[in-house]
Amino acid sequence: MRSPETRENVLYVHTLGSFLMQWNGSRIVGGAKSSDSQSTYLLQILIHNRRNGVTRDRLESLLFEEREINDPHHALQSIIYNTKKKLEKTGLPKVNYIEQRGGVYFWTDQIETVEDAEQFEQTCAEARAADNRDEKLVLYMDACHMYSGDFLPMLPTAIWAVQEARRYKNLFCACVEEAAELLRCGQDYFQMEELGRYASRIDPLADWETVTMEALASMGRYEEARKLYDDTVQYYFNEEGLRPSRKLMEQFERLGVTMKHQHAALDTIQGELTGQDDAFPGGYLCTYPVFQGIYRMIERMLERGGQSVYLMLCTVVDGKGNPMKEGPMLEELSKRMGDAVRRSIRRSDAMTQYGRGQFLVLLVNTTRENCAVIQRRINQRFIVGRQRTGIQYYVNSVYWTPPMKQTDESDRVNRA
After folding, report:
1. 403 lies in a domain?
2. What is the tens place of the pLDDT at every residue in 205-226?
3. SS3 285
4. Which of 3, 55, 147, 260 could form an SS bridge with 172, CB 3.0 to 4.6 Å?
5. What is the pTM of this model?
């Protein structure tokens, strides 16, 4: 993997993940000294657009936005003058840092300037154009590690920066997918695991854990893959209140299909299948895919009849009865509700967290009246003192629907 160059008398500008300007190993702008000053913003705009420059009208529009400025031309010249004075004190060569040519402003070409975002984009293009598989893989891996975060994340309201951030993130995603496919074809699962973990750190909540899970499973490290899945599901719940994505669930299902074990006696296998939470008196708390599998199995069991099964959704609500979707108290309330639900249902019942502030409960062999009893039991454990928040319940009966059998006549209609 190529290391970033550190040649002398070259201005290195970092715009991915943060903003930093370095000259001969010393920070001159950004980093710990970073600020939202207009001088810094001016440099970010000009350096990133140094190839084609920025017109005066465009520059004034970006710097002043909708603010009422009596004389924007004079204000712009003042910012440029102050920025040049600041740069003279940094140790940079004393040149005309900001040049004007025919109404267009440019960052000087008298100082060799290297921007990480530009290098990243160039490496992506080189990887796409490479013919040799090994060279293509090296370039894609280099590009992935060049991307160290969102483009200028300190500018969340600047439309041009947000558009560039989205473009660079899409490039990063494409590079990760291409590199993962090359590693998969070459069965280089060690490097594939490293790629997945790096992508998950740099671009969280984007399902890159699936790459790591696939690599771990391919190396036979199934328990690590399963633990990564559980940790990822919990992280998504805690951070965004999200349930597992379809992509993550499909990878989990593939993990179950590919999982291989050594030959063992039935007693040994049964011991592995037995849960480790037998001492807990309440219901079975499981991940959403496991819950989904239990639900589908019960649907099939209902084909034989003789059981009454209900699906209950529990949602934390505020004092006005509205579902709570965010807020500092939601995580604590959600955890407390989950504990109350688990202690209020039987060991034969299953439950899972569906989203932030929501739990699904599968009540087996019970009645509608008993559902109301369980709800009162949950409320007694959840509501404390004069607590204004509460729980909203929805209950549906689980029933088996026989598959539709297509008749010869319908076959003829479909073919027609």
Report:
1. no
2. 888 999 999 999 888 888 888 8
3. strand
4. 147
5. 0.70
